[in-house]
Design goal:
The complex is a heterodimer of chains A (113) and B (114). Chain A contains no helices and eleven strands. In chain A, the strands form two sheets. In chain A, strands 2, 4, 5, 6, 9, 10 and 11 form a seven-stranded mixed beta sheet that branches. Chain A has a four-stranded antiparallel beta sheet with strand order 1-3-8-7, with no helix packed on it. Chain B is globular and about 40 Å long. Classes of the chains: A mainly beta (113), B mainly beta (114).
């Protein structure tokens, strides 16, 4: 039973066309994370929510934003995707930031044409 | 600052041979250390973790890792490789005093030859 669900599995967008990726969880975890993983590279943390508190990494481009309307859902918005934003986007959750219990979704593979 | 270095972007072994994937970390404070596995087009799955208890940590699928403070290492091993072990493996570190953020290594792709 999937506990962290990411939709869609594959997303194709056009250069400059806004796109939204979604993540939902059935674990009732406080913390939700978004990671960007480019081809053959390590996942890189973009931002995380602790409950409703948003925490942006210092080097996350302004082009990337996030929304968390409730405990279960978190969205990643890319306002004007560039070719360099093509990547796998991974959502993860944890209870109270405890990384020993970090659960990842299967990811959304974003292509930018 | 914390960092993780994984030596060898690709490791190739024969089925049944020992698997050794290397990870060295840098941390100014006691770390938590993790190994994750990623199969093609999938998310990351936790293999094992070190959180200051036993230095030899056993994980899923027959993998284990040993925390060696003197060598700042946390190498991943498995006595006998299976074809199903072929995947990307990531070592990661976080701070014990600020556990929100995982820093990942660049990954090692394990290839298993028949």
């Amino acid at each position: 039973d999937a506990m962290v669900i990411q939709n869609p599995r594959y997303q194709v967008t056009q250069f400059g066309k806004p796109v939204t990726l979604s993540c939902s969880q059935t674990l009732n975890h406080n913390v939700m994370y978004w990671y960007q993983q480019k081809s053959s590279q390590a996942p890189k943390l973009l931002f995380h929510y602790y409950d409703k508190d948003f925490n942006n990494e210092a080097d996350t481009p302004d082009n990337f934003q996030s929304r968390r309307p409730n405990t279960s859902f978190c969205f990643l918005d890319i306002r004007s995707p560039g070719l360099g934003d093509a990547a796998m986007y991974l959502c993860a959750t944890s209870r109270d930031g405890g990384l020993e219990k970090l659960f990842f979704g299967s990811g959304t593979q974003l292509s930018v044409l | 600052a914390q960092s993780v270095t994984q030596l060898g972007s690709h490791v190739s072994v024969s089925e049944g041979a020992l698997v050794l994937l290397r990870c060295n970390y840098s941390s100014s404070v006691p770390p938590y250390l993790f190994w994750y596995v990623q199969y093609p087009n999938q998310g990351l799955q936790l293999l094992l973790k070190y959180t200051s208890a036993a230095t030899l940590v056993k994980g899923i699928n027959g993998f284990e890792a040993e925390f060696k403070k003197s060598e700042t290492s946390f190498h991943l091993t498995k006595p006998s490789a299976h074809m199903s072990d072929a995947a990307e493996y990531f070592c990661a570190v976080s701070r014990m005093d600020s556990s929100y953020k995982l820093i990942f290594g660049s990954g090692t792709r394990l290839l298993v030859r028949p």
